[in-house]
Structure formats: structure tokens, C-alpha cells
């Protein structure tokens, strides 16, 4: 029991710090569009290339985590991340943008399938849901701090130095504790390191796929895109308030995720997200009030985190150990591909059509959560070995 508590503490510190780095770095692209250092012509680059780098890292390191182990990925990705920090810090040209892409490729892309798999396999069933909700909430703390730096510091070089210091200190902390983590015993004992999940039951995959697409799009479009496209002067504040709402949602999720069935929790969260998005649509086009708009952005963020956190929990719980990391990376790849396309597609749309487009993805998530509500099963408090044996 004492060993488990120690391992849980190491796991919490190392993975929450990594998730913090994810949120901090993935928000940089959107925020950098508002600085005059880079020409406006590369705004699309700043919005598209970071998630594209994340997508590639997801697929590559998800495969490695299943074939060679979770621990190997957790040791490799910080090294790559450190190179990204150096490129961003030391160069003032477009090379610094390559550094941002490397940040997203490594920690944000490469780390997450391995981290979600490791957490799922090493937390007790009664800890798993609330700790996953708590740890994944650190992505919002990262994004919040990132936006605060841009709000308080206007000089590009001061911003860059501050960002680099935060990244480096967080990385050192994460690396120190993740080196102490043992390899996932459940992964070691897995009978087959088969990385294909083609034969997985569609009653699991289709809801997961729809939920994943929805959460990535509804988070990304509001947190990273709506500001630069429609409210450039409010971009920093939109990111700040949206992620503040996400943090509140993550805290709420921590205290409630184990109280009701996962099937119900997911469905109710998507219903709340749709309602808040519809109210936001009406508020923008009838009242045209910035205070009301920003308040609703915060409320929308609350429901966004509830759906995002639940999706990460379900990805780990529903995919089997022998292909868990690969499955996570492939499922979320669909969402990131559609997100990248959506950044291009929505460029030039009116704000009304942009919001309607966002609501369509909330409806996508509602469809996925409804399918899981009616045809799925509750994963709450089920040990991972039992979840590996369930076929539906």
C-alpha cells in the first residue's frame, strides 16, 4: 500500500507536469498571432503546423509505446522537447517556429497516448476516474498561464524568455519524477504486443471516435481560432477565460466523475456543452455585449473540460492493453485531421457560421455519447484487467 502511494505521487507529479507543458505549448500558436514580431501572413502557419506536429507525434509514439513500452516514450519525449525549447529560445527567425513544432511533436503529441495508457494501467479502479480528471485538468492550467504571460508582457523577447523559463523548469521537474516510474506491469504481462485494433468491437470504437472528434474540435475552435479570426483584440482574454472555465469544469469533474455512471456523465456533459454554445450564439448576435460574450466563453469552457476529461478516461478504459496507446493515437488522429481542415475551412466564414459549425461538432459528441449511453456499459470502478476481458 505504501509503495502504491509513493508510485501514485510520482505518477501524479510527472504526468500532471507533462500535461501542463502540453497545454502551455499548444496555446502558443494562437497567442503568437497577436504579436507584431511575425508577419500576419504566417498566422495560418501558427494555427495549423503545431496541431499537425502533435498529430504526427501522436501516431509515431503511440506505436512505440505499445511495442517497446510506456516508460521508453516517457524518457525520450522530454529530450526532444528540450531541443524545441532551445530552438525557440535561441533563434529569432522562423527557426523559432520549428522549435514550437518540436514542442508539440514531443510532449503534446508523443507523450499523451503513453501517459493515458500508463495512468489507466497503474491507478486503482477507485482512483482512476478522479485522478485522470484531475491530472488532465493541468492542460488548462498550462494554457491559462501561457495566456497570462501574453497579457502582462507585450515585448516579444520578454515573452519568449519567460515562456522558455517556464518550459524548462517544468520539463526538469517532469523528467526527474518520470525517471523514477517503473514500467507498466500490466503492459509487461500483456499476452501480445499486437498493435492492431482493427477487430475491436464497433460498439466501442464508433462512440469513442465521435466523442474524440467532438472534443478536439469544440475545444480547439473556441480556445485557439475564434479569437484570431474574429476578436483579435480579445484573443488573450478568450484563451484565459475559456481555460479558467475548463479548470472549474475539471475540479467539478474530479468530485463527480465517480458518483454517477460514466455513460450518464458523458451524455450530460455534452448536453450542457450544446446548451452553452447555443446561448453563446444567441448572445453574440442579439446582445453584442463583450462582457456577456466572455462570461459565456467561461461557461462553455466548463462543459468542454467535462467532455474532454471523460473522453481521455474512456479512451484508456475501453481500449485493450496490447494496443491501448496505438488505439488512442489513431482515434484522436481523426479529430486532429478534421481540426486542421476546419482551421482552413472556417477562415473567412462569418462569426455566425463559425459558431454553427462549432455546434455541429457538439452534436457529433452528443451522438457518440448517446450511442454509448444506450449501447455501452459503465466502466466506473472496474479493474483494468476486467476491462481488458470485456467484449460487447
What descriptive keywords fit this protein?
392 residues, Growth Hormone, Chain: A, 16 helices, mainly alpha, single chain
Describe this structure in words.
The chain is mainly α and 392 residues long. The chain has 16 helices and no strands. It has a single domain, classed as Growth Hormone, Chain: A. α5 packs across α14, α10 runs antiparallel to α11 and α10 runs antiparallel to α13. The protein starts with a helix and ends with a helix. The model has no long low-confidence stretch (mean pLDDT 89).
Weakly predicted, low-confidence segments: none
Named CATH topology:
Growth Hormone, Chain: A
Largest sheet: none
Shape: globular
- Cα end-to-end separation: 33 Å
- Sheet-strand content, in percent, reads under 5%
Helix proportion range? over 70%
Q: H/E order of the elements?
A: HHHHHHHHHHHHHHHH
List the helices and strands and how they pair.
Blueprint: H1 2-26, H2 28-32, H3 43-68, H4 70-90, H5 95-122, H6 125-136, H7 138-152, H8 156-178, H9 185-189, H10 202-230, H11 235-256, H12 262-287, H13 290-318, H14 324-345, H15 351-375, H16 384-389
Helix pairs in contact: 1-5, 1-6, 1-7, 1-8, 3-4, 3-5, 3-14, 4-5, 4-8, 5-13, 5-14, 6-11, 6-13, 7-11, 10-11, 10-13, 10-14, 10-15, 11-13, 12-13, 12-15
Amino acid at each position: 500500500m505504501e509503495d502504491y502511494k509513493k508510485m501514485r505521487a510520482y505518477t501524479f507529479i510527472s504526468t500532471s507536469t507533462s500535461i501542463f507543458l502540453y497545454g502551455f505549448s499548444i496555446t502558443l500558436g494562437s497567442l503568437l498571432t497577436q504579436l507584431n514580431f511575425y508577419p500576419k501572413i504566417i498566422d495560418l502557419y501558427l494555427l495549423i503546423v503545431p496541431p499537425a506536429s502533435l498529430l504526427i507525434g501522436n501516431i509515431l509514439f503511440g506505436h512505440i509505446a505499445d511495442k517497446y513500452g510506456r516508460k521508453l516514450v516517457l524518457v525520450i519525449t522530454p529530450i526532444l522537447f528540450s531541443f524545441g525549447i532551445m530552438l525557440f529560445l535561441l533563434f529569432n527567425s522562423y527557426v523559432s517556429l520549428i522549435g514550437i513544432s518540436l514542442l508539440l511533436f514531443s510532449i503534446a503529441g508523443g507523450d499523451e497516448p503513453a501517459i493515458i495508457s500508463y495512468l489507466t494501467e497503474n491507478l486503482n479502479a477507485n482512483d482512476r476516474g478522479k485522478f485522470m480528471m484531475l491530472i488532465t485538468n493541468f492542460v488548462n492550467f498550462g494554457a491559462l498561464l501561457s495566456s497570462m504571460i501574453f497579457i502582462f508582457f507585450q515585448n516579444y523577447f520578454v515573452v519568449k524568455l519567460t515562456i522558455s523559463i517556464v518550459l524548462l523548469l517544468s520539463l526538469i521537474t517532469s523528467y526527474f519524477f518520470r525517471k523514477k516510474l517503473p514500467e507498466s506491469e500490466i503492459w509487461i504481462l500483456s499476452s501480445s504486443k499486437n498493435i492492431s485494433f482493427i477487430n475491436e468491437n464497433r460498439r466501442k470504437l464508433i462512440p469513442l471516435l465521435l466523442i474524440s472528434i467532438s472534443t478536439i474540435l469544440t475545444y480547439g475552435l473556441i480556445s485557439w481560432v475564434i479569437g484570431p479570426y474574429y476578436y483579435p483584440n480579445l484573443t488573450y482574454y478568450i484563451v484565459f477565460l475559456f481555460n479558467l472555465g475548463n479548470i472549474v469544469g475539471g475540479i467539478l469533474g474530479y468530485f463527480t466523475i465517480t458518483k454517477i455512471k460514466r455513460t450518464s456523465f458523458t451524455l450530460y456533459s455534452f448536453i450542457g456543452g450544446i446548451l452553452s454554445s447555443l446561448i453563446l450564439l444567441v448572445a453574440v448576435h442579439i446582445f453584442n455585449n463583450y462582457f456577456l460574450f466572455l462570461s459565456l466563453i467561461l461557461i462553455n469552457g466548463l462543459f468542454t473540460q467535462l467532455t474532454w476529461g471523460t473522453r481521455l478516461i474512456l479512451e484508456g478504459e475501453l481500449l485493450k492493453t496490447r494496443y491501448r496507446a496505438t488505439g488512442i493515437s489513431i482515434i484522436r488522429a481523426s479529430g486532429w485531421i478534421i481540426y486542421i481542415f476546419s482551421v482552413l475551412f472556417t477562415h473567412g466564414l462569418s462569426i455566425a457560421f463559425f459558431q454553427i459549425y462549432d455546434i455541429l461538432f457538439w452534436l457529433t459528441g452528443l451522438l457518440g455519447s448517446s450511442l454509448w449511453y444506450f449501447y455501452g456499459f459503465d466502466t466506473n470502478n472496474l479493474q483494468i484487467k476486467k476491462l481488458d476481458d470485456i467484449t460487447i
